Structures are given as structure tokens and as C-alpha cells.
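Sequence only, no structure available. Ideas?
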Amino acid sequence: MAHSFAGKQGLVLGVANKRSIAWAIARRLADEGAELAFTYQGERIESSVRELAESVSSPLVTACDVRSDDDVARVFSEVAEAFDGGLDLLVHSVAFAAAEDLEGRFIDTPRDRFWMAVDISAYSLVACAKAAEPLMQARGGGSIVTMTYLGGERAVPHYNVMGVAKATLDASVRYLAWDLGQKSIRINAISAGPVRTLAARSIAGFTTMEEMFEQRAPLHRHIEADDCGAAAAYLLSDHAKNVTGTTLYVDAGYHAMGM
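Reply:
I predicted one. C-alpha cells follow.
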């Protein structure tokens, strides 16, 4: 395998366990020579993330609450310290909505939980991109990838406020692409079909969604986390040096269908 990431250093946000899409991406980057730092959210998953990070010889594993500007600033200063003041790659795979808001009706979403979903799932990308900018500039450029979903473009029953947060994320990618492009920093999104992750299991009717997906997608097959790993490796690599502000659909063609 060509080591497209030899000598590159990256930060991965959003690994929860070995089934996480963020972990599939991280493993792919590490296999191709990248050195990676990781963040985790909350003590409950710390040991799981540390164990995975250790398996790819990570120099830094640190807690990060993306809702806190101070926490984001601390994380990126730790990253700067670990990576000699620079950063090449950023993987943002962070999203959250309250479980009760992924059932019932979108119209019932209370104001505080609406903003929490948007803050964690979309604004966190803006905050992290801003913190990464000087570190990537120090390397003469860099690449950022985030995870989105079709529910940000079309109404998907039960996805509710998460869909609105993803729509905000999608628009943020385009505006960030414009801001960061002059520093040779690229940013793109991957829109994945349903993958069996910890997050997916909290969506009501996920199994039905999977079945329908398999019937309707042109390739009639499921998506694996590794498919997202391969797509992210492309978008983060120099092979995609002129690709920015783009959403790459890894969904067996489902997004192209009318019904």
C-alpha cells in the first residue's frame, strides 16, 4: 500500500468505540503512515478510546467538550505541542441530539435542545476549524473532513433536529471552504448511508431504515464504516488537492434516487 500519509499528523474527534466511523477513518490514515492524536467525550468512553489510540501508537489522547471554547483551545494547544506547532489533517466526526428528540415530532423540539444539537453537531466544526487554521497554515496547508447525512438535505422521519443540525453543518463546510481556501486548507464532508454505530442505534426505526436503504439504493447493499475510511483517505490526501467545499456520498447511490 502506498503510504500517502507518511510524515502527516492529524487530530481525530469523535471516536467512541471500534465500530465508530471516526475509528475506521483513523485506522486507514494510520495504516498509511499518519501519526494521530485523539479526543474523547466523557469518562465513560475514555478507556475504549485510549486502547484504540494505543494500537496506532498515538502520542496524544485528551478529553474534549466541544461546547467549551476553553476546552477546544486547550486541545489544540496540546496538539500543537505534540506535533511541533503544526497539523496536517483534522477529522471531525462529532454529533449529538437528545434521544427523546429523535422520536416523535420535530415540531416538539424544545429551544434549549435544538441549540444544543446545532452547537455540538455543527458549530463545533467551525470552532475546531478556527483552532486548526494557524497549525495548518504553519504546514503550508491542510485538510479537514466531517461527517454528514442526507437527513440534512431531505426530511428523514425520526432524524428530526439532527437533520437541521446537519443542514447547518453542510452550509458551514461551504463557507469554511471559502475562508480557508486562501491558506491552502481544504474542507469536505462525507455523507454516509446507514452504518451500524453507537450513534445509529439511538435513531428510532434504524432497522427499517436499513432495509429500505438496501431495497432503494442502486447498488442494493449496506455501507460499512471502512467505506467511509476509504473515502476520507481520498479527501484528506493530495489526490484530492483541488477538491474542497464538497460532499462525497458514500451511500451505494441512495441519494441519487427519487423514490
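The CA atoms of residues 206 and 212 lie 10 Å apart.
Hope that gets you unstuck.
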